[in-house]
Design brief:
The complex is a heterodimer. By secondary structure, chain A is α/β, with parallel strands linked by helices. Chain A is 39% helix and 24% strand. A six-stranded mixed β-sheet of chain A has the order 6-7-8-3-9-10, sandwiched between helices. Chain B is mainly alpha-helical. Chain B folds into three domains: 16-45; 47-61 and 186-399, MetI-like fold (Orthogonal Bundle); 63-181, no CATH class. Chain B contains 17 helices and no strands. Chain B has helices at 3-11, 16-43, 47-51, 53-58, 66-94, 104-128, 132-154, 160-181, 189-215, 220-234, 238-252, 261-286, 290-298, 303-318, 320-341, 346-353, 365-394. In chain B, α10 (220-234) crosses α12 (261-286), α12 (261-286) crosses α14 and α13 runs antiparallel to α14. The longest helix of chain B has 30 residues, at 365-394. The relative contact order of chain B is 0.10. The mean pLDDT of chain B is 87. The chains are: A alpha/beta, B mainly alpha.
Chain lengths: 245, 399
């Protein structure tokens, strides 16, 4: 493995109409690193990770994912998306497909895996997120926590090199948050490169290699969890931490 | 008090006013029913329908070739049965089949409940017809459907691709076979209405879906063309379009190159219904949360597979009622082809038979129109019920 960082953002700007969502954002994420992004709502956290797999197109700056720069080239975009898994706040499972089909669809269509292999892999992944018994159900029959774990399994089925989590526990009932966080901790321990947008400070403390604080479309401060939660420098960070802790 | 009495009290006789309304409406309904039954059984002079049954069903299709129509019906029933059996087998394998009630009586009752409009139609035609042909056809039709259904369920899965090919080719084969007896320009009666409707349905559906996708496209030319097509066709009365196809086409196309009336009618029905379907499908597309497309994109799926595997299956299912409504509309609107283009369709036959020979001047239009309306109702109602069934089946796992 080279020392080349997994994900690089250099001076990225993003506008929605006249509103600037990202202002000169630069970030490097190393292989196997877990970065947790926190910040008030509307600070650009989601936009940041949605730019990394081109769900949003950035307007200026460079984004390089595993050595591939995101440009207008559709094939590059597709290959970045293949290598980067994403988990959404609203799960976004496909309601018309069974759990098994949700997980096997992309590997079969995009990676051209034979059905047997894709299903064996899906079964394995469902065991990994601890819901092997739900394979034949439909998303609508599962609890929110179970759905989100299926969504994690679905993203992992593409064998991504990095995973993006966009507030994965924000839509969950409190008692289901931990089951999802546990699956994410397993992943982090397994050495997955991860960028996690979340409000779960416990998770950030325990799992993150680095915590990034964003406000008004800018990265205000970043550091290791110990440093970040005990010794924040910027007034905005202090204010935010005082509000949530 | 018995449950029945409680129900009556609660729903029909709760207050004095309720009771009065119940009695008044009850009398009105009873009187209407009485008049209706009397019309059907006593005062109606159904001779005009009985004598002209062949005209009403197939128009001037030559008698010698009538067996072709019968054979086509039987083959269609057999293939339809095989496909239904095949679907059933797949549902059983996937575990999504409805639980089958064990008793034979139960199953028979279920089938009767599902197909009674069809059976009423068949019974009616048999009761009116005096010859053996329709009886043979009916027996063959039902027998073929049942046999096909059983065969389809037990055929090995490796034959499925072949079966699907056969099922897709059958309609074309049958149309060619029946048209070999007399070209479709000479078809009439129900046969013509059903042919116009089915052909237009098959063609307008993909057109509607494409136009709906086109209207949402990011490519300006595609979007513009789709929008122009939809708004232009929806902005004109169907009747005017049919008249234009009948008359105005002659100004633009030399007579020996211009297509026959039936083809023109199909083109008009297809374009017209396609435009309406496009807007219905667009509604279905907009009912999907954007997260669905985003999730597919994030998995690296191509736009084409995202559209066909994720977006359309959900969007189309969400608007089944509106789509079927449009198709039922199309079926009934085929009567306009008779009036606008001089085609010998069911309604046209119904009008002609009251004016000819012994029946002229006898004021038999109520009988003729009632029969025409009943046939359309049986067809439309069957479509409506089957669509509700499909909706229920596709709803598996949604709740």
């Amino acid at each position: 493995m080279t020392d080349q960082p997994a994900i690089v953002l250099e001076h990225v700007d993003k506008w929605f109409g006249t509103f600037q969502a990202l202002k000169d954002v630069s970030l490097e994420v190393a292989e196997r690193e877990v970065v947790v992004v926190i910040g008030p709502s509307g600070s650009g956290k989601s936009t940041l990770i949605r730019c990394i797999n081109r769900l949003e197109e950035h307007d200026a700056g460079r984004i390089v994912v595993h050595g591939i720069e995101l440009t207008q080239d559709l094939r590059d975009i597709q290959s970045v998306r293949r290598e980067t898994g994403m988990v959404f706040q609203q799960f976004n499972l496909f309601p018309h497909l069974s759990v098994l089909d949700n997980i096997t669809l992309a590997p079969r269509r995009v990676r051209h895996l034979p059905r047997k292999e894709a299903e064996a892999q899906a079964t394995e992944l469902l065991e990994q997120v601890r819901i092997p018994e739900q394979a034949d159900k439909y998303p609508g029959q599962l609890s929110g926590g179970q759905q989100q774990r299926v969504a994690i399994a679905r993203a992992l089925a593409m064998r991504p090199k990095a995973m993006l989590f966009d507030e994965p526990t924000s839509a969950l009932d409190p008692e289901m948050i931990n089951e999802v966080l546990d699956s994410m901790k397993d992943l982090a321990r397994g050495g997955m490169t991860m960028i996690v947008v979340t409000h779960e400070m416990g998770f950030a403390r325990e799992v993150a290699d680095r915590v990034v604080f964003m406000a008004d479309g800018q990265i205000v401060e970043a550091g290791t969890p110990e440093h970040f939660f005990t010794d924040a420098q910027e007034p905005r960070t202090k204010l935010f931490l005082s509000q949530i802790l | 008090m018995t449950p029945a009495r409680i129900w009556l009290r609660r729903n029909l006789f709760r207050t004095r006013f309720d009771s009065a309304v119940t009695v008044a409406v009850g009398l009105l309904v009873a009187y209407t029913l009485f008049r209706l039954v009397r019309f059907v059984l006593v005062t109606g002079r159904w001779e005009v329908v009985r004598v002209n049954l062949k005209l009403l069903l197939v128009g001037r299709y030559p008698n010698v070739h009538l067996p072709r129509v019968a054979v086509a019906l039987v083959v269609a029933a057999a293939v339809g049965g095989v496909v239904a059996g095949m679907v059933r087998r797949h549902q059983a394998a996937a575990g999504t089949a409805e639980h089958r009630s064990q008793g034979l009586g139960r199953r028979a009752a279920g089938l009767l409940g599902r197909f009674w409009p069809v059976l009423v139609g068949i019974g009616l035609l048999l009761g009116l017809s005096g010859t053996a042909g329709p009886w043979l056809t009916a027996v063959g039709f039902i027998g073929a459907a049942v046999a096909g259904r059983i065969a389809g369920e037990h055929l090995p899965a490796r034959l499925d691709p072949l079966l699907i090919l056969v099922a897709l080719a059958t309609p074309f084969g049958l149309v060619a076979y029946v048209a070999d007896g007399a070209g479709w320009e000479d078809w009439g009666g129900v046969l013509l209405n059903v042919f116009l409707a089915l052909a237009s349905m098959v063609l307008c559906f993909p057109l509607g879906v494409l136009a709906a996708l086109g209207r949402r496209s990011t490519l300006p030319i595609v979007r513009g063309l789709s929008t122009i097509y939809i708004e232009l066709l929806r902005g004109m009365p169907l009747f005017v379009l049919l008249l234009m196809a009948n008359v105005a086409l002659g100004f633009f196309v030399p007579p020996d190159l211009s297509p026959g009336k039936v083809v023109r009618a199909i083109v008009v029905f297809t374009l017209f219904t396609g435009a309406y379907l496009a807007e219905i499908v667009r509604g279905g597309l907009q009912s999907l949360p954007p997260g669905q497309e985003e999730a597919a994109k994030a998995l690296g799926m191509s736009p084409v597979s995202t559209t066909f595997l994720i977006v359309l299956p959900q969007a189309l299912r969400n608007v089944i009622p509106a789509q079927v409504g449009q198709l039922i509309s199309l079926f009934k609107d085929t009567t306009l082809a008779g009036a606008a283009m001089g085609l010998f369709d069911l309604l046209d036959v119904g009008q002609v038979i009251t004016r000819q020979g012994d029946f002229a001047g006898q004021r038999l239009t109520p009988e003729a129109y009632a029969f025409v309306a009943l046939l359309f109702w049986l067809g439309s109602y069957t479509m409506s019920r089957e669509s509700q069934r499909i909706e229920r089946k596709l709803g598996v796992g949604e709740r």
